[in-house]
Amino acid sequence: MTALPCLKVLIIDHNQERLGATQQQLESVVAVVDRQDIVMEFLAVHSNVELTVALESDGDIQAVLLNWETHENLLPDTSIIDAVKSRRLEVPLYVTGEDDVGFDIVSRSNKIEAFFALHDIATDPESCLAYIINDFDDRSETPFWTAYKKYAQETNDSWHTPGHSGGASFRSSSYINDFYKFFGRNMFISDLSVSVDSLGSLSDGTNAIGKAQNLVANTFEVKHSYFVTNGSSTSNKIILQTLLREGDKVIVDRNCHKSVHYGIVQARALPLYLDSILDPKFGIFAPPSLTQLKEFISENQDARLIVLTGCTYDGLLTDLKQVVDFAHQFGIKVFIDEAWFAYSLFHPQYRDYSAINAGADYVTHSAHKVVSAFSQASYIHINDPDFDKDFFKEIYAIHTSTSPQYHLIASLDVCRKQLEMEGFKVINNLLNHVREFKEQAAKFKRIRILGPDDFKQMFGHFESDNIGHDPLKILIDISELSYSNQEIHRFLMDEVGLEIEKFTHSTLLVLLTFGGMRSKIVRLYNALNKLDSGHVSLRRSNHQKELPNKIPPISMAMLPSEAFFGKRETVPLQDSVGRIAAALITPYPPGIPLLVPGQTIEAEHINYLNALSSQKLTIQGLIDGEIYVLAQ
Fold first, then answer.
1. What is the pLDDT of residues 224-256, one digit of tens each?
2. Cβ contacts of residue 324 below 8 Å, gap of 6+?
3. Which residue intervals define the domain Orn/Lys/Arg decarboxylases family 1 pyridoxal-P attachment site in the entry (predicted)?
4. 497 in any annotated domain
């Protein structure tokens, strides 16, 4: 049975006698408040050390009550408030003190949620506790999900789209009623239409949808947040088409997701590609060098935008504060694709690498990849002081369906609630699982878990650029195993029931997401232990276990849009040297484009693709050995 939500109030006071009195006064009115839907607890600490330990270990803490002592009319500094917020940014902080210094206290910090006089807590603790509970309720509100669920359960007669009318067309069919039975009644009665005005419009951001989006903006501490129901691929394109015009320069990480490359094509912009930095042994790409990025900015001060991937597929993290600060000196906007890192704000271990915390102007999050939303659910966050909201909405309308899936919108609403209320707790548990897993995996003889020390060896700029790594992206070195990738994949899937996120020729990538459980970690360890010890019957492999040393650089002959929308033809790959690519050519994994539209094809590119053939990778854009080029 799922436990009730817990509202734990952490009380800190260096005066132990007063600390105990405050705790007793608040506890005495819990029964009077009479909330059966939550559990209320109080934790009292009287030292900064105890405060730090509690904040870093107890994810149920949902409020901090601090007694602000004064000595000889001197107010203390705000370091304790900063310490609380650096660890638990989302937790409201309340201050108590003598009544006559209330104004002085709240003027010292804008991070204080409310002030309570000590006299009020002593004489009317019920009112103070009710204030804290009200804030707790506001934070845990789900305006769209609540209204959506209520409307669906009313079972109104449907005289509008969708045509199945709450599942009636499925239920009454001899041919497709199994579809209804599989998903169940609630799935169909909640498949609604934009005709339900009370729930609001996604394109206009009205009513319950608008309220839910505003709550997301509050949780992520940005000016505006928007829901997107067809993935961060679309979110990326919306931002690029909002900001870029034909011929605008955009400095872009070549390793960005292909949606960024397509968005640049759609915007008819001019990309300036930062070099790919590849470790050929493991097939891992690093973030671009900050030295090269700063050179590009200095040489192209008229660039409109910088686009980077905040967290790579393999979990490498860019120190984005350096990027944002340098770019903003020249008036250049910064857009970060943080699809794989939607939880970056909600734990102190990650916050320094968060795009929002770094001050990026635009950020996208795939809420379905690692946190709790349905597939295709995505957030757009905007902090740009020059944001053109009207034009953005025009572009948003181009890409957004007028019949959005309300299940996806509801999942974005509840996903925010989880991040707000228990994001820290979930992440803390996951990080503990990873630590335990690594301790056990250290016993392996042939399999290794790659970490920062390995990345320092792979990439010369890892330390100098302050690159980080997300340990929830578990990168497993299998290069010492003598089995083929296909055999390892078959063993993991067919024999032990593990579906792995990504394979390269020498690594497995395992994502520990918000749905990660300790038992899953144990099952993964068990499977790897069998592979490491050789207690499996798999075919041996003698195939090459290393990629080419680097990806050839991009040399643009024209705007990508000119080639992409121009007249094109197919030619055999081997005959394409000197021609201009008219489509993306993307080896997968890892999904980094080798060729982009408008790029001159060189022999080096052909050699690279040929070298990949032994790896049995998928080459997207290569059709029966032919590729699209600009017609002559």
1. 999 999 999 999 999 999 999 999 999 999 999
2. 334, 358, 359, 360
3. 364-378
4. yes
